[in-house]
Design brief:
Structural class: alpha/beta
Distance between the termini: 66 Å
Number of strands: 10
Largest sheet: 8 strands, mixed
Strand content: 5-15%
Helix content: 25-40%
């Protein structure tokens, strides 16, 4: 197929274009703050930014929690490659956790609880990469804005190839909580995430699809999102439903160039969207803190 035919049948959407729409929202929000928010990042391994000894990281996090000039905290993992990393995640003040890894945020995400307060003024923080993928789908108009908020993926079937606790599983939960039928795929098999028939349940449920593989769920899916690390994995393009939306969030190219022969939209990377979502989370944390302060 010629390049002209490819461009006619498949639209390639770059992360930079998607990020620009979010940058406007973030810039507007920042302009309303009395000062620029401060985000502190801790690097306890081999990075070029400010480093701290990993054995001292706990103390640095506790100090940042108490520092009123610090609005957000991010820690670059892995550090110990053990349960110690989970402990450090929970050590960060929930009011400064821009990554959305605190237990309260994770609980809210899986339980489909979207606000921190009864007045629904303070939104719960979501992990950056899964939220970035949601924002990509919103930009692509996969979310149906005619439907009520929280149900806007109803009618869509989505395959997510990755079920890591960092991205894949949270993403499947978010999409299912928004109304989609989601097939979550990893090396152990396929799980289906849905809110039940007619999306009548308040939160998603998970069902094992025994014996299923990519070849069973991908032909049913109008959206396919892949994030498999490593060069060895190549997505089987031949099973794609014609006109599907394909998104790659791996640092590797999970989809070969022939994806353009079958997909209607292809997003080859999302890195720039994830960065702006991190800033958006920081802004949201500051806004949450402001809205919780007594007036007067």
């Amino acid at each position: 197929m010629t390049t002209q035919d490819e461009s006619a049948s498949c639209k390639v959407v770059l992360a930079g274009s998607i990020a620009k729409s979010l940058q406007v929202e973030v810039a507007e929000g920042l302009s309303k703050l009395s000062r620029k928010p401060l985000l502190v990042g801790f690097l306890a391994n081999k990075f070029s930014l400010r480093e701290v000894d990993r054995e001292e990281l706990e103390g640095h996090i506790l100090a940042a929690n108490q520092d009123e000039t610090v609005d957000g905290i991010i820690v670059y993992y892995p550090i110990f490659n053990s349960r110690q990393d989970q402990y450090l995640q929970q050590l960060i003040d929930v009011g400064k956790d821009v990554e959305g890894l605190s237990h309260r945020y994770v609980f809210n995400m899986y339980q489909n609880i979207r606000f921190l307060d009864e007045q629904k003024l303070q939104k719960s923080i979501l992990p950056c990469t899964p939220l970035a993928l949601v924002k990509v789908l919103e930009y692509l108009k996969v979310y149906n804005t005619i439907l009520p908020y929280g149900n806007r993926l109803f009618g869509h079937t989505i395959t997510v190839v990755n079920r890591s606790e960092v991205v894949g599983r949270p993403l499947a939960a978010l999409l299912a909580n928004d109304g989609a039928c989601v097939y979550s795929v990893d090396v152990t098999g396929v799980q289906q995430f849905t809110r039940g028939e007619g999306i009548k349940k308040r939160r998603h449920e998970v069902v094992e699809k025994d014996g299923w593989t990519l070849e069973d769920c991908v032909p049913l899916s109008d959206v396919v999102i892949s994030g498999v690390p490593g060069e060895a994995f190549k997505f089987p393009i031949h099973v794609l439903k014609e006109g599907a939306v394909c998104i790659n969030f791996s640092t590797e190219k999970n989809f070969g160039p022939e994806v353009k022969d079958r997909a209607s939209i292809y997003v080859p990377a999302i890195g720039k969207v994830t960065i702006i979502v991190l800033l958006r989370n920081l802004l949201r944390i500051v806004q949450n803190r402001t809205s919780s302060m007594p007036s007067g």
